Design the sequence.
């Protein structure tokens, strides 16, 4: 276990490109929960694409807990290979025996016009070892029929585009024409958090500015500069792959806003960690994408928060 003081862990990593002034990319939309039924023998990408197409959806999130994979390709975070990136990916690892996902999150979107995904998680391999990282679509096959909880978007889509700041192609939300998803739609915001900002603080500020007094998080895939958990555990290697398991934001002008974010990660050494992320000291490394589902608002809270800021 890596433990140290926050002062020894980087709080900022210089990216190769210019940093846009807008540090949160957000699109207001609606969405609904549904069940993704995956079938043994299909590739993970094909199964996810089929499930979203069946629902008439082009973007959203999926929880991966309990997913069994017969063939599995993945990678971990790694140091940069050149000056064009602040960090990079490791070599591709492959598992030919059944691997079971313990916990994981997936962002579903579009890349070059086709469905694509971005997924991180932790899993137990056939030898009993627990590992984690970035799930690759190529060569990853579902081992057993499974039903996974998913959340589909209406009025927004996560689209993979080149990002000048980081040098990677990353998902970010863009608006699209809304369609009718039927009953059960909820107000939501599709978000991408840019590098070098505390990801809990960014969510708290986002809710404060809009008078959102209660919200839950669907999905949650990204990277942080090392990590610190509320239990005191600290991850020192600067590149991680993070997934959220549960997340909520709540507050108001009198008590302030607080994000409770539980999840896991793997660092460059292959170390896996899990817990509640500490607030204020977990800056984004490359990106963080998620859906914030609005459960309660108070417009006066946004006015009061703005007045307090002045």
Sequence:
């Amino acid at each position: 276990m890596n433990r140290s003081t926050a002062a020894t862990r980087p709080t900022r990593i210089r990216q190769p490109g210019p940093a846009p002034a807008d540090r949160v990319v957000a699109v207001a939309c609606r969405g609904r929960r549904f069940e993704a039924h995956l079938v043994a023998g299909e590739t993970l990408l094909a199964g996810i694409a089929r499930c979203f197409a069946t629902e008439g959806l082009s973007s959203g999130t999926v929880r991966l807990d309990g997913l069994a994979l017969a063939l599995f390709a993945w990678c971990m975070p790694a140091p940069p290979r050149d000056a064009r990136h602040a960090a990079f990916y490791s070599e591709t690892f492959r598992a030919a025996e059944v691997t079971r996902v313990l916990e994981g999150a997936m962002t579903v979107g579009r890349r070059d016009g086709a469905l694509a995904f971005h997924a991180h998680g932790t899993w137990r391999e056939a030898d009993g070892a627990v590992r984690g990282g970035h799930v690759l679509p190529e060569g990853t096959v579902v081992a057993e029929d499974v039903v996974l909880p998913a959340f589909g978007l209406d009025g927004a889509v996560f689209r993979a585009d080149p990002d000048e700041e980081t040098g990677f192609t990353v998902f970010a939300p863009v608006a699209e024409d809304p369609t009718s998803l039927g009953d059960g739609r909820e107000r939501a915001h599709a978000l991408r958090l840019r590098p070098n900002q505390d990801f809990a603080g960014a969510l708290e500020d986002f809710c404060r500015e809009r008078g959102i007094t209660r919200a839950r998080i669907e999905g949650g895939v990204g990277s942080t500069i090392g990590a610190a958990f509320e239990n005191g555990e600290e991850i020192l290697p600067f590149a991680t792959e993070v997934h959220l398991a549960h997340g909520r934001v709540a507050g108001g002008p009198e008590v302030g806003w607080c994000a409770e974010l539980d999840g896991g990660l793997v660092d460059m050494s292959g170390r896996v960690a899990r817990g509640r992320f500490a607030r204020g000291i977990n800056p984004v490394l490359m990106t963080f994408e998620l859906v914030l589902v609005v459960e309660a608002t108070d417009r006066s809270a946004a006015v009061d928060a703005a007045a307090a800021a002045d």
User: Anything to note?
Assistant: Helices lie at 44-54, 199-210, 299-309. The first helix runs from residue 44 to 54. The radius of gyration is 19 Å.
